[in-house]
Amino acid sequence: MNKDITGADPPRELKHDAIGFTDALVIGLNSTSPAYSLAAVIGPVVALVGVYAPGIMLASFVPMLLIASAFYYLNRADQDCGTTFSWVTRALGPWLGWIGGWAVAMTGVLVVGSLADVAVTFGLLTVGLDSWVENDWTRQGLTVLLILVMTAICVIGTEASARVQNVLILAQVACLLVFAIVALQRVYADSTTLESITPQFSWLDPFGAGGAALTGGLLLGVFTYWGWESAVNLTEEVKNSASAPGRAGLWSTIVLLVTYVSVAFAVVAYAGTTFLSENAGEEEYVFSLLAEEVMGGWDWIVLLAVSTSALASTQTTIIPASRTVLSMARRRALPSLLARIHPRFRTPHVSTWWVAVIAIGWYLVVNRISANALFDSLTALSLLIAFYYALTGLACAVYYRHRLTESIHGFLFIGVGPVVGAVLLLWLLAESVLDMADPENSYSGVSWFGLGPPLVIGLGIVVVGLVIMLARRVFAPAYWTEPRTSAPRPPSREA
């Protein structure tokens, strides 16, 4: 057995009861990066569906809630920080379990650099350092530094991470609410500078813009909710681990629904569909454009909201990736080195730093290609997200298949709901593949092997994963040959 520097055996488990329900809820919320997600998506959604953008936010919530139910019930059966990896392995076998875990880990690698870049960019804009933003070397250097700092906080301990997240979510939500209130007040006072529209309840109808527009809007809407499951990845470190992490995930989606619909109403009412559609290509910068319009000299409040949103998500996105890698490594699906836990902080320091280093490398390499290539890599996220969420929904129904007829509640919320959520996400996955196959639909607008760059990136990640998986199966087959009953924890009798 390897010893640490004191000669003692290294810890084999994460720190139990490190944080509570509220901390897990905050981390789940921050992982979605609400302000950044809204800023990135609201323009393109309005370009697709017009005033029905709030309805799209509502419709996108449905598959997320159904999958959140799957996470809740599977967490009660197995409190493993690997979540999707561990659960899918149990229910559907090691092959799907491995590739599901790979998808979770790679989403973190793809997005961490972009989130940190946005945090730095909007932070600099907040304090008036616009020239620093325009200097690629300065901005990218600060981005790498920020990733390293956030990673260090993750390693130091879950409690430290939670304290940072509590501050960031308060700043973010407060800024968003101030922005929404001021925007709506100016709409009703008829003091707007743009072509404002009086809000209508009919905007909540997601079908108002038609079928094709609904599909495209849902693809974007699902992205805004992605990340809430970080609360469940902390299951081994949360008090009352059999239920609190799952409840935190569920409540995260509900809080996000209220936030997204409220801000969508405010933005559409104040700016109107023409302005938002014309600036849809600006992505997250649409909020920087609206900030001065709505807030005047107080525009820094909105810029700060986006910056703190991306900053918080930079840290929390590392959590599910590192915990999933840890879970895979201790089941010997990945090299055992990645399963090491820090003797003092009781966190997965090796897997955390590996995720950060690979994310930094991806960010720098893709930026050398072009800024648009970075956006294309983010677009590829939807493939991985829909895939592992759908796998989790199916795993829930399969795992509990012998108990689904015991009650109507169980049949609906453990069986039908997760399966319906999985089917919806698989449909969106298929639509994404068809859309991404056309190079014209990418940010770069170029062809890679006759396909759009986002699809090539997504397929490339899957292929690399399959190669690594097959290599592990041949040279380190322990994970594939272990009895399925040897999962870390027994299922709960409560469901």
What is CATH's topology name? Amino acid/polyamine transporter I
Kindly report how far apart the N and C termini lie: 38 Å
- The total count of strands amounts to 0
Largest sheet: none
- Let me know the average pLDDT: 80
What is the chains' assembly state? single chain
The SSE order reads: HHHHHHHHHHHHHHHHHHH
Architecture per CATH nomenclature, i.e. the level-2 architecture: Up-down Bundle
Q: Strand pairing plus helix content: what structural class?
A: mainly alpha
Strand content: under 5%
Number of domains: 1
Low-pLDDT regions: 1-9, 486-495
Shape call: globular
Kindly report the name of the CATH homologous superfamily: Amino acid/polyamine transporter I
Question: How big is the Rg?
Answer: 22 Å
Please give the share of residues in helix: over 70%
CATH class placement: Mainly Alpha
Helical segment count: 19
Helices and strands in order:
Blueprint: H1 21-31, H2 34-49, H3 53-77, H4 84-92, H5 94-126, H6 130-134, H7 136-156, H8 158-188, H9 211-225, H10 230-233, H11 244-278, H12 286-295, H13 300-330, H14 349-369, H15 371-379, H16 381-399, H17 408-436, H18 453-475, H19 478-481
Summarize the structure in words:
The chain contains 19 helices and no strands. With 495 residues, it is an all-alpha fold. It has a single domain (21-486), classed as Amino acid/polyamine transporter I, CATH 1.20.1740.10.
